[in-house]
Amino acid sequence: MPFVPLVLLADVRELDVAGTKQVGDLLRRRFLDALLDLGEVIAVRRHSCSLVADSKPTAPVGNSSTLVSRPEPGPCPRHDAHVETLYFDVLQFLYHLALAILVGGAVVLGAAAAPAIFASVRSRGEAGAIFGGVLGRYDGLAILCVVLIIVTSVLKATAFEVTGAPETRLVVRWLALLVLCGATLYSSAWANPVARTIRAQTPDWDDLRDDAPLRREFASMHRGSRRAMTVAIFAGIVAMFLS
User: Fold this and answer.
1) What's the pLDDT tens digit per position in 167-211?
2) CA-CA distance, 228 to 179, in Å (whole number)?
3) pTM > 0.90: yes or no
4) Residue 60 pairs with which residues in a beta bridge?
5) 100, 108 in Cβ contact below 8 A?
6) Residue 98 DSSP SS3
7) Cα-flanking dihedrals φ and ψ of residue 59, to 5°?
């Protein structure tokens, strides 16, 4: 048996931690592409099975001249049922995980992280810088969750949920998800990055007066982001209730 050396964390001089963008690229290349391929395979298999089940009459029954269809042997029924069940479970897990991160993350940031940081740090400017860093990490994760919600919702609708006219409950859930994704993208992809850029590129930020143009623009972006996150929380709760 070959000898495997034991490497302790103290022996590691530099530890590289993957960033949000790297994790997102990894999920997109290795996971989402495979998930889409699996959905395509299941759709093709279901279509082929339906063609076999609805094939034209090919054999008579008894002494009758009426022709009935004789299903061809194939691996469709039981094997595909297990694959579809796994596919459905994976979609449901990713969908609810993304919803939980968006709703729970926004609640934790607004109700716990921000009050605690601004209460414990003496300088308001330093507290804003700390919370801005936390918010920057959350924004990348929130955008990734929006992508997951969109992809899983489309795959669920095409594979399982929509078989005819969509139900009212399903339509309301889609509207709630649309509001959730729009509010999250406004907050995490626009308002928060713009506010952080204004703060980072303004020298002597803490010395600016409250009526300075950059201060007013920063405050406007901050208010818009806070309102958007509030809307996203309520829309996410509605979507979770209807899921």
Assistant:
1) 999 999 999 999 999 999 999 999 999 999 999 898 888 888 888
2) 10
3) no
4) 67
5) no
6) helix
7) -145, 140
The whole-angstrom separation of Cα 233 and Cα 210 is: 30
Residue 121: which residues within 8 A CB-CB, separation 6 or more?
127, 130
**What span, in angstroms and rounded, lies between the C-alpha atoms of 174 and 166?**
11
3-state helix, strand, coil in the chain (%, to 5): 75, 0, 20
Q: State the maximum Cα–Cα separation within the chain, in Å, rounded to a whole number.
A: 98
Extents of the domains making up the chain: 86-243
Q: Coil, helix or strand for 49? A: helix
> Phi and psi of 177, rounded to 5°?
-65, -35
